[in-house]
User: What shape does this take?
Amino acid sequence: MNKTEQKTIESLISEIIETADSKKATNIQTYKTTNSWLTDYIVVLSANNNIHCKALLNDIDQKTCEFIKKNPSDAFYEHSRTSGTVESGWLIIDTNSILIHILLSDIRIEYAIDSFFEENSIIYHN
Assistant: This one.
């Protein structure tokens, strides 16, 4: 990844965090993966309930799609991809270089994904 792509990815991460924060997401954490073929960065955030989860998904996905349209790059898919259901309490937005996990707080604790990411990445701070 070249420096321009790196700056573009970091700019999108900042926008994701700003959007999540403005929508009252909690425990927002960003990880830079090491030795991963899957993605470069992972953003994990918690939602209060299923309605909050859906609102975060909609707003972050919209912001991500707008950013990608304005900043086309090999680092991103043409359109982000989403998986999971609101009812499951775990949603993922995949942009290629960034995976965004939106989880209900109790599910995040139950699956301890932060522990997994901490073991397999570097905590990234804006």
Q: What stands out?
A: The two ends are 19 Å apart (CA to CA). The CA atoms of residues 35 and 120 lie 8 Å apart. DSSP finds four helices and six strands in the chain. Residues 3-124 form a domain with the Beta Polymerase; domain 2 fold (CATH 3.30.460.10).
